[in-house]
């Protein structure tokens, strides 16, 4: 059930005490004996808050030193591209990381200001395509998390999120360093690098700006106070677009936001509550878009439908791209996470393409995307990327700017909004009803849920249909949870890799009422498993 003020503007009482958050970053020393204060890499790096000892100076120093140690063991000798977003903790964490990198004589390339995650990914790919010493990157961001939070993630030379085989040893080493304090530090320094110029110039290799500009469609781009804030205006100017940056305010308290479903401030561009201001003004634009704080996610708003369900947009994006990218490899697959809609499966099959289904986490897409084996890959949480016009990887991390611009290209090229295109897909492939439910879960409960086994599910039916499958793996990887399917529905349960919650995803091809029955039964099944 949504909070009473969900979707309403934040007021003063909702805002963080900025000085308290910043002071706690250096004053609170995490205990190496407290597992709740340990370094833990979830689906996208280490996240936490300074206020409870889960994201503090000691964490960032240890993580950065551990990344340096990994670089040495992996023979990575090129520069490190470093970016940050607009969260309050991002700037002090950035300074700490630079000090440790300087103490280890690592060359750092960074820009003065905010840098979107996809711009860092693209810069790494461009650098490494030239040959020579390979580069990698650090990005200081907790993504869409609340203003109290901080985050840091490592992207190795393939440009995308590091695999578990890399982050596991990095986290283990970082926790050793938390205890020992054996960290080298120097004076923070970075060589200036213009991420924005490189990224915006090269966007023409992946987006048809000519068709957008010639159409004259009106575009509203809302950075939600994040790292894309100084990119959107330049994109509009560079390519002659009728584009308005909806809100150019940068405020680490994010006081301009509307409250999310739980009453918190969260820069989640896939949430209708967090995007309420843009949705309310949707008729001003032919297409409106939002990005989260590090711009790796996208939200698509149309005049006729408001904020699109991320699954719906992924489906229409795939359908459009497979008819408008003639130079893509004919055998390239389409990737989705196993908690994404079955509409995507139907669209991919209609184009005679192979579907690659993976666990939640963009890291599972990186290698096939970098090699061109996968042409498009997306997550239900509104993160995706795809190949450029020539069939090469443009960014191997989620790219919220690219997908937002694709929505404008689709509107310009077809004369229809992405939501209208989705309605046409439903006519061809049938309806489905999708939802996600979040519930609190502590560390112990999340550990149990991540190790669920099909034998722990005693139920034989799901919402009136016989259960046909119970799986704990996808594409050869453990999904960190469980997916249960029947003829007309499925649900998946997994712990969040970034928050103290577990998530239940569900979809029904019958009706909204059937979907709610699936969700209710799924929670009973999961709670029974957690209870042992």
TrEMBL record:
Keywords: Isomerase, Magnesium, Metal-binding, Phosphoprotein. GO terms for molecular function: magnesium ion binding; phosphoglucomutase activity; phosphopentomutase activity. One of its GO terms (biological process) is purine ribonucleoside salvage. Gene3D superfamilies: Alpha-D-Glucose-1,6-Bisphosphate, subunit A, domain 3, Alpha-D-phosphohexomutase, C-terminal domain. The keyword Transferase does not apply. Residues 468-521 form the Alpha-D-phosphohexomutase C-terminal domain. Residues 40-176, 199-303, 309-428 form the Alpha-D-phosphohexomutase alpha/beta/alpha domain. Its cofactor is Mg(2+). Pfam families: PGM_PMM_I, PGM_PMM_II, PGM_PMM_III, PGM_PMM_IV. Belongs to the phosphohexose mutase family. This is Alpha-D-glucose phosphate-specific phosphoglucomutase.
């Amino acid at each position: 059930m949504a909070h009473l003020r969900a979707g309403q503007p934040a007021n003063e009482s909702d805002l963080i005490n900025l000085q308290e958050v910043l002071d706690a970053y250096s004053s609170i020393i995490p205990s190496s004996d407290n597992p709740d204060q340990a370094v833990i890499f979830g689906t996208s790096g280490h996240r936490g808050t300074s206020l409870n000892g889960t994201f503090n100076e000691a964490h960032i120093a240890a993580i950065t030193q551990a990344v340096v140690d990994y670089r040495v063991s992996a023979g990575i000798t090129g520069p490190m591209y470093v970016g940050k977003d607009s969260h309050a903790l991002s700037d002090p964490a950035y300074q700490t990381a630079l000090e440790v990198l300087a103490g280890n004589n690592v060359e750092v390339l960074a820009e003065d200001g905010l840098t979107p995650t996809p711009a860092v990914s693209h810069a790494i790919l461009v650098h490494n395509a030239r040959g020579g010493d390979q580069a990698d990157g650090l990005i200081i961001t907790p993504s869409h998390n609340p203003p109290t939070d901080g985050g840091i993630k490592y992207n190795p030379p393939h440009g995308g999120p590091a695999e578990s085989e890399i982050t596991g040893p990095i986290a283990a080493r970082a926790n050793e360093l938390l205890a020992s304090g054996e960290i080298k530090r120097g004076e923070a320094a970075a060589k200036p690098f213009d991420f924005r110029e490189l990224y915006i110039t090269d966007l023409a290799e992946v987006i048809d700006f000519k068709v957008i500009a010639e159409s004259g469609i009106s575009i509203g781009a809302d950075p939600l106070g994040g790292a894309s804030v100084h990119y959107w205006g330049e994109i509009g100017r560079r390519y002659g677009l009728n584009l308005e940056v909806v809100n150019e305010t940068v405020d680490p308290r994010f006081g301009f936001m509307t409250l999310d479903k739980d009453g918190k401030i969260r820069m989640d561009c896939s949430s209708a509550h967090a995007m309420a201001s843009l949705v309310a003004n949707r008729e001003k634009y032919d297409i409106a878009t939002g990005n989260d704080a590090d711009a790796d996610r996208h939200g698509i708003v149309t005049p006729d439908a408001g904020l699109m369900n991320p699954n719906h947009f992924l489906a229409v994006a795939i359908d459009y791209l497979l008819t408008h990218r003639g130079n893509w490899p004919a055998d390239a697959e389409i990737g989705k996470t196993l908690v994404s809609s079955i509409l995507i499966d139907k669209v991919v099959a209609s184009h005679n393409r192979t579907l690659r289904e993976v666990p939640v986490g963009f890291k599972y897409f990186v290698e096939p995307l970098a090699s061109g084996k996968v042409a498009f890959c997306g997550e239900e949480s509104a993160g995706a990327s795809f190949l450029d016009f020539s069939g090469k990887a443009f960014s191997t991390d989620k790219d919220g700017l690219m997908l937002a611009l694709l929505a404008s290209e689709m509107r310009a090229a077809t004369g229809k909004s992405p939501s209208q295109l989705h309605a046409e897909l439903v006519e061809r492939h049938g309806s489905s009803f999708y939802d996600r439910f979040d519930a609190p879960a502590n560390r112990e409960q999340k550990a149990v849920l991540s190790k669920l086994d099909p034998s722990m599910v005693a139920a034989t039916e799901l919402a009136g249909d016989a259960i046909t499958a119970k799986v704990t793996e996808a594409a050869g990887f453990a999904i960190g949870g469980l997916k249960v399917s029947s003829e007309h529905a499925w649900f998946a349960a997994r712990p969040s890799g970034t928050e103290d919650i577990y998530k239940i995803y569900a979809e029904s091809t019958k009706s909204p009422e059937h979907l709610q029955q699936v969700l209710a039964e799924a929670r009973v099944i999961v709670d029974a498993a957690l209870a042992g």
